[in-house]
Amino acid sequence: DAKTTQPTSMDCAEGRAANLPCNHSTISGNEYVYWYRQIHSQGPQYIIHGLKNNETNEMASLIITEDRKSSTLILPHATLRDTAVYYCIVRVTNDYKLSFGAGTTVTVRA
Amino acid sequence: NAGVTQTPKFQVLKTGQSMTLQCAQDMNHNSMYWYRQDPGMGLRLIYYSASEGTTDKGEVPNGYNVSRLNKREFSLRLESAAPSQTSVYFCASSVIGANQETQYFGPGTRLLVL
Fold first, then answer.
1. Cβ–Cβ of A96/B31 closer than 8 Å?
2. What is the DSSP string of chain A?
3. Looking at residue B97, what is its pLDDT?
4. pLDDT per position in chain B (114 positions), as tens?
5. Looking at chain A, which terminus has fewer C-beta neighbours within 10 angstroms, N or C?
6. Chain B contacts of A98, Cβ < 8 Å?
7. Angstrom distance (rounded) from CA A104 to CA B31
8. Residue B2, min C-alpha distance to chain A (Å)
9. How far is CA B74 from the centre of its chain?
10. Are residues B99 and A51, on separate chains, in Cβ contact within 8 Å?
11. Where is average pLDDT lowest: A10-14, A24-28, B84-88, B94-98?
12. CA angle, corner B64, sides to B61 and B65, nearest 5?
């Protein structure tokens, strides 16, 4: 699996959009970008994934650059409950392994 | 629909003791996983089971054994616990499709080995 690079931490104001960057410059053509988050002491939670097109669901939007070497997770209106560690993961479809790095610790402040 | 459940929630062991962590899912998923998470670290895969009747080693399998009892249940056994196995253990399950695979995680088992 390609390695990812994320900032260690970031702050965000409640009600504002949170933009979480991820670099994956060695991503292969058949590798998807996945985002999970882990709220304190809980199991990780799936957020969104994509291959090359931008994706949106009820939780977030995923913007992938045209060369696929980086992506941004957007939480459109951050709330205090979005405070968590966010993991950007790249993996091949039908590969059974998710490799979690250190992630980005996002703190949403009132 | 409970999702993924894990027992126990907390456990304290003495070095050398054995125990089994239980995991069950009610989503009819084929694949199940065991991860461990040490303080301040990301999750690391211990073992996984792609389907009933199969198990494979992950990144950190030493000191652990697993059993895929049936499609619903996947247990993790520590035969002789060591302080280095103090961690939070997460079980997960998933269905792997053509272009997506979402893992659903349980609440975790917090294990302290003295």
1. yes
2. ----B--SEEEEETTS-EEEEEE-TT--TTEEEEEEEE-TTS--EEEEEESSS-EE-SS-EEEE-TTSSEEEEEETT--GGG-EEEEEEEEETT---------EEEEEE-
3. 60
4. 679 999 999 999 999 999 999 999 999 998 999 999 998 888 999 999 988 889 999 989 999 999 998 999 999 999 999 999 999 999 999 876 655 678 899 999 999 999
5. C
6. 43, 45, 103
7. 27
8. 14
9. 7
10. yes
11. B94-98
12. 105
Phi first, then psi, for residue B84 (nearest 5°) are -65, -10
Task: State the smallest CA–CA distance between residue A46 and chain B in angstroms.
Answer: 7
pLDDT digits (tens, 9 = 90+) for B37-62: 998 888 999 999 988 889 999 989 99
Q: How far apart are CA A17 and CA B65, in angstroms?
A: 44
- By residue count, chain A amounts to 110
